[in-house]
Write a structure and sequence with these properties.
Elements lengths: L6 H29 L10 E2 L2 E2 H6 L4 E2 L2 E2 H18 L2 H29 L4 H14 L10 E2 L5 E2 L4
Antiparallel strand pairs: 1-2, 3-4, 5-6
Helix pairs in contact: 1-3, 1-5, 3-4, 3-5, 4-5
GO molecular function: oxidoreductase activity; quinone binding
Pfam families: VKOR
Membrane topology: Multi-pass membrane protein
């Protein structure tokens, strides 16, 4: 049953934004991982504060032998697969873990860039897309929901 306040349309719109952000973040992450700091990244200058090559080849750019950009691409791809693979109750539970890992990755990336003294434009775009993907997620909805019979249920149920 459709909600009177247009909630279904808003949820579909938020999901489209989330899917778009995750697809683009996955592609950028795979591109940056393929560059690996050995090559000049297209569209990113190599002088001054903005230097993708320095960020992608710095000491914090690889975690457990895997480039940080590839971790981001895997996180985004997982976000694309979760809704289709899991039932709603598990999606919310695992979604929290997914979101915490994403925020942890962002904090790691920002710390790495601050300590390195350089900023990667493509990394910043990817980080913005990760935030854009996490915001419309239904795991952030704390508001109680009503079923068609008027009963109130906690968010995520």
């Amino acid at each position: 049953m459709a909600r009177r306040d247009g909630g279904d349309a808003r949820m579909k719109h938020r999901r489209r934004i989330q899917i778009g952000a995750l697809v683009i973040a996955t592609m950028i992450g795979l591109y940056l991982a393929s560059m690996g700091g050995d090559h000049q990244v297209v569209g990113c200058p190599v002088s001054g504060l903005i230097n993708c090559e320095s960020v992608l080849s710095g000491p914090g750019s690889v975690t457990m032998g895997i480039p940080l950009a590839l971790w981001g691409a895997l996180w985004a791809a997982t976000g694309l697969l979760l809704p289709g693979l899991l039932r709603r109750t598990w999606r919310v539970r695992i979604g929290w873990m997914w979101a915490v890992l994403g925020v942890g990755g962002l904090i790691w990336a920002w710390t790495h860039e601050i300590l390195d003294g350089h900023v990667c434009l493509w990394c910043s775009v990817m980080q913005t897309l990760i935030i854009a993907a996490a915001v419309p997620s239904d795991i952030w909805c704390f508001r109680a929901r009503r079923d068609p019979f008027g009963n109130t249920h906690p968010a995520g149920s």
